[in-house]
Amino acid sequence: MTVTALTDQGILEIRGRDAVKFLQGYCTCDLLRLTENQALYGAITNIQGRVETTFVAILDTAHVLTPVNEPSILLRMSRTCLPYIKDFLAKYAVFSKATLIDRSQDIVCFGCDEALPEPYGLAVRIPQRPKAYELWTSAPIHASSDLDTWKAREIHAGLAWLDQQQSGKYQPFELGMADNGGIDFQKGCYLGQEIIARVHYRGKTKTVFRVGSAEGACQPGDPIYAGSAKPCGEVINTSATGAATDCSVVIQTDVLTQSLTIQSRPFVLQS
């Protein structure tokens, strides 16, 4: 079994009587589907319908990691995004019986290729990534610190994780969330929902989410070129694989069949 410490991720707890009702108004997935054994992948969006962060959410009904007798949702997201997201949601939480708490110092996330025994903490699995598990725990666990293998698994599962510099840049469909179930189009209203639904049902998208391989090293935020001086896309997540780098990208649809480069080196999209 391979266990990897997800040191780039943090945990935000939303605790209180209105925790589910409150967060339901700011995210793309339907939190009413959360159960003790069902985690969800989704995004928190702004009024322009753009993604502030993606997350994995779980409802800690057994209070394994949270105080007893209070409803509590735990969200895993990029550690760089968490302080910003906490402040973003806090502006709206003043009208609800919900408290936001950064739990990154006492809850640690691990990625696993097998399910660990439940006494360790919360075993987390999402439909978008059926062949991998997470463990959220307060217990010390021996684990690898090499994130690249886990990041490659997430990239090829079509999951996108934004850092703070990428917050607010993309709509959910540009991150593939309309295709992988990260958006529930049947749930009630949430911030930016009308814009997201309009694009989905009536719009013709000019950019899409894709996975590919770049020669040499590259990093999130690197521009992609298709033979002109103007970028045609941007790298979202990366994982070094020997002399190459696996990448998830947002790219214009009209260049998908053209020769592409990142940092003047070839970049090839998966078919």
Class of secondary structure makeup:
alpha+beta
The residue-averaged pLDDT reads: 93
CATH architecture of the largest domain: 2-Layer Sandwich
Helix content: 10-25%
Give an overview of the whole structure.
By secondary structure, this protein is α+β, with helices and mostly antiparallel strands. It has 2 domains: 3-156, Alpha-Beta Plaits (2-Layer Sandwich), CATH 3.30.70.1400; 206-271, Elongation Factor Tu (Ef-tu), domain 3 (Beta Barrel). 14% of the residues lie in helices and 32% in strands. The protein is built from 4 helices and 15 strands. A 6-stranded antiparallel β-barrel has the order 10-13-12-11-14-15. A 5-stranded antiparallel beta sheet has the order 3-4-5-2-6. Strands 1-7-9-8 form a 4-stranded antiparallel beta sheet, with no helix packed on it. Strand 12 and strand 13 form a beta hairpin. The mean pLDDT is 93.
